[in-house]
Amino acid sequence: MSVSSPGGGAVRWRVFPLRARRGARSTAPRPSRPAQLRALLAVLDEAVAAQRSADAAVAACGEPGPVSGRAARDCGDASSALLRLSARLREIRLTEPDLVRAQAYAERLLAYAQWMVQQAANLAFTVHPDARTEASRLRLNGLGRPADDLRRLREDLEAEADAP
């Protein structure tokens, strides 16, 4: 490859492809199953704890009467916490197929919880309230079954980790 230099002469550059050394590992060693399980459980423990505040924030948005500004802050805090936990969950490198499935399921459940918090805040603090929106808001009472599913997933994985 030739490149012209400021003085008008050509400078020759040689391009060499990078080659991996034979026998060199391109990835980190695979963590053991118990280590993968512990990493997943650590995030799931925090996720279940964060769901409690998210559940309370959604329920507060469904209370009769005017919704307090505190409920809006709680929804914002819960949404941020769930988003951070979703990111941490995606960062865990898992190789065991059943743990990868559990991780994907937990990601979907956290995404639902975050969506539910956002929708509750949207209903509670709508710019143009109407009877239909108010009726929907009053039906809010928490995260529901998906929150229970995340708790059950964590309990099942915990039971596996405790088994000899």
Give the end-to-end Cα distance, rounded to a whole number of Å: 63 Å
Q: Please provide the ordered H/E string of secondary-structure elements.
A: EEHHHHH
Number of strands: 2
Uncertain parts: none
Silhouette: elongated
Report strand %. under 5%
Major sheet details: 2 strands, antiparallel
What is the number of helices?
5
Mind sketching the topology for me?
Elements: E1 2-4, E2 10-12, H1 33-61, H2 69-91, H3 97-124, H4 131-138, H5 145-162
Antiparallel strand pairs: 1-2
Helix pairs in contact: 1-2, 1-3, 1-5, 2-3, 3-5
Key descriptive features of the protein:
164 residues, mainly alpha
Describe the structure concisely:
The chain is mostly helical and 164 residues long. The protein has 5 helices and 2 strands; from the N terminus they run ββααααα. The chain is elongated.
Description:
The chain has 164 residues and is mainly alpha-helical. It has a two-stranded antiparallel ribbon with strand order 1-2. The termini are far apart.
